[in-house]
């Protein structure tokens, strides 16, 4: 049974610049190969201070494409009306163009993606991967990657690992929600995160990557944490890292304790009672899902009466926004003076200076709180800001993204096949450069 502590760093929507791997400012203590599980391991946090944020309209498109769902009519119209958004969308879809803790830090302007230091191979090669509960592929830039697409990412060197084995005939091809994609070949190698490790992890080595991925040199790949066979390797799908280490953990869980504008953490193999208040309420995974997907049973806007309403939602650390049925969006922004739909962006905007109402979601008798100031997602212009709650298509998906996850303590339980939620002590958000 193991306890691990490791670090999480806000990645950055595939956009940042860092020194070459020989002068890596993301220094963290080396993690040595383990013969036995350590009780605890701690890695210092590192923040990507160069991140400048992502276009929230693209973030919204990202989610629909990620789950293979149609865009909302409003978002489709925005793509037609906005030439820049249209060009980016076409390029995205391939048209014209044990137990442990992982520290997490959000970028300065938008709290969106996170990366974790990972050791691959023997001797271990340290790299930094996005931890994404909405996918199940473990892939990385490598010496196989087409060199013009490498922009100072850390490269996995399979030939330098004496435990690396090429899986002949296996290949993979993945496309994420913003249309960013990658494809390549597959190795089997030792992978270690903190003091957890698995000696025969499928490591997907990127040969081709899209420009949207290539332009971010801070993150060097993805560590998908979903389960139930959505890995894209063919003909033999691989297990996610969480699936592979599940039986060796003290408890078959990992928890997310993300924060707004400051360091948070992921714990593996145990639940830290000091990180939440009250009891944890569990929602069972839907039986026909391949994701961390649950039923939400209602919602409440500030002091208005609670409204029972069942809607299914994916719990996804790789999605920034809280995306819900359009009637909930309408109900929420009706109470916000000056809130308006922007047809060129396909999103709801709010006056930056307005005090936003709190939002609550329900699971049975549980009421999870998202403070109003968490729902201000950053400036669209000098007067208006993006709303952190946006609408989904009637066919879905609804997604409990980081707007909600930052305000909650969340348990991903692979034993119960459930996701647990609890409220936690929230600190006032630190001031950020844009003054929000």
UniProtKB/TrEMBL annotation:
Keywords annotated in UniProt: Aspartyl protease, Hydrolase, Protease, Signal
Entry-linked CDD domains: Aspergillopepsin_like
Domain Peptidase A1: 114-422
Signal peptide: 1-15
Region feature (Disordered): 19-39
InterPro entries: Aspartic_peptidase_A1, Aspartic_peptidase_AS, Aspergillopepsin-like_cat_dom, PEPTIDASE_A1, Peptidase_aspartic_dom_sf
Protein family per UniProt: Belongs to the peptidase A1 family.
Identification of the protein by name: Peptidase A1 domain-containing protein
Organism: Bionectria ochroleuca (Gliocladium roseum)
